[in-house]
Amino acid sequence: MSTKDFVEKDYYKVLGVPKDATDAEVKKAYRKLAREYHPDANKGDAKAEERFKEISEANDVLGDPKKRKEYDEARALFGNGGFRAGPGGAGGNFNFDLGDLFGGAPGGGQTAGAGGFGGGGGLGDVFGGLFNRGGAGTRVQPRRGQDIESEVTLSFTEAVDGATVPLRMSSQAPCKACSGTGDKNGTPRVCPTCVGTGQVSRGTGGGFSLTDPCVDCKGRGLIAQDACEVCKGSGRAKSARTMQVRIPAGVLDGQRIRLRGKGSPGERGGPAGDLYVVVHVDAHPVFGRKGDNLTVTVPVTFPEAALGGEVKVPTLGGPPVTLKLPAGTPNGRTMRARGKGAVRKDGTRGDLLVTVEVTVPTDLGADAQDALEAYRKSTAGEDPRAELFQAAKGA
């Protein structure tokens, strides 16, 4: 939408509301008209579709308090399509090119009536929020760089303790041949469709509007007059770089880490995008992981489990710890070695969860076999499955 359209169109008339209508009245009028002229309700009716576009455009301005204020101020200054001459004028409306007022006219600017307006005056501020224009012409918006996603594979120990790893990444960066302008001579023109904003708005009905990247300039706000041969007018070129990335301690397999400002560089002073690193962790032959805790399964003999004793347990990257095994420890019991797990965010460590696994010997010597036979005879009256069968009958 051009500045001229903004001044000349009567959006109050389009919605059928008075100039002092409240926000609620504007919204109510828009919803009623939008339902009436919506393309889905008027398929194949070009006039209804055009009317719906006018209604959506009017709501986009009057439904936004800031835009409505700017619109009212502009209408007050320019009247209905032209600037009203002062007492010394010929009467009626004095029409002129609004572009001269915003861009500056040769020889010091446009003068009208008794009070004149310099070409570099403040009238551009009235439209500044709506068209991103200033007294010296259109301002092209800064553009944020794209986000990048990469992957890294760590060993189990690196994931627990943290590591610094090199990442080689390919991303889009400003084209060096044209300094990111996309134009061979470095003189692109402002996109007339989005007026340099890189975005266009469209009504969706129900009082809502969506902002989409401009398809004509691909969201850049600029269009090359003579496209750069290297980047084909896009202003961007592929860039490969190696970055040292610090992966924090305690990272989990599949975790996605965000590094702010480490993505593709922005354009025209815009901020860089972010880097997202997806972490894959290799399995460890001994240790496992449950959140901030590490896990390990330790085999013990039947006498150790039955009579109790002390067992040594390995730790990840440190000396072993000794745990006291109570007499009568059943197979599968889990004990805890505090502070021997993974690093937490606050710098403390989780625990090492030790699960006992009673081993059964496959080859017994004569003495061991005789001892077990004697043990079986001494416990012949005990049936460890009695409660199982009793419970099964009860169910």
Automatic annotation (TrEMBL):
Domain CR-type: 162-240
Renumbered ranges of CXXCXGXG motif repeats: 175-182, 191-198, 214-221, 228-235
Stored Pfam families: DnaJ, DnaJ_C, DnaJ_CXXCXGXG
Cofactor note: Binds 2 Zn(2+) ions per monomer.
Main location group: cytoplasm
Entry cofactors: Zn(2+)
Residues that bind Zn(2+) 1: C175, C178, C228, C231
Transmembrane segments: none
PROSITE patterns on file: DNAJ_1, DNAJ_2, ZF_CR
Recorded superkingdom: Bacteria
CR-type Zn finger ranges: 162-240
Domain J positions: 10-75
Record's function text: Participates actively in the response to hyperosmotic and heat shock by preventing the aggregation of stress-denatured proteins and by disaggregating proteins, also in an autonomous, DnaK-independent fashion. Unfolded proteins bind initially to DnaJ; upon interaction with the DnaJ-bound protein, DnaK hydrolyzes its bound ATP, resulting in the formation of a stable complex. GrpE releases ADP from DnaK; ATP binding to DnaK triggers the release of the substrate protein, thus completing the reaction cycle.
Subunit annotation: Homodimer.
Family recorded in the similarity comment: Belongs to the DnaJ family.
Entry note about domains: The J domain is necessary and sufficient to stimulate DnaK ATPase activity. Zinc center 1 plays an important role in the autonomous, DnaK-independent chaperone activity of DnaJ. Zinc center 2 is essential for interaction with DnaK and for DnaJ activity.
Protein name: Chaperone protein DnaJ
Organism: Streptomyces atroolivaceus
Lineage: Bacteria, Bacillati, Actinomycetota, Actinomycetes, Kitasatosporales
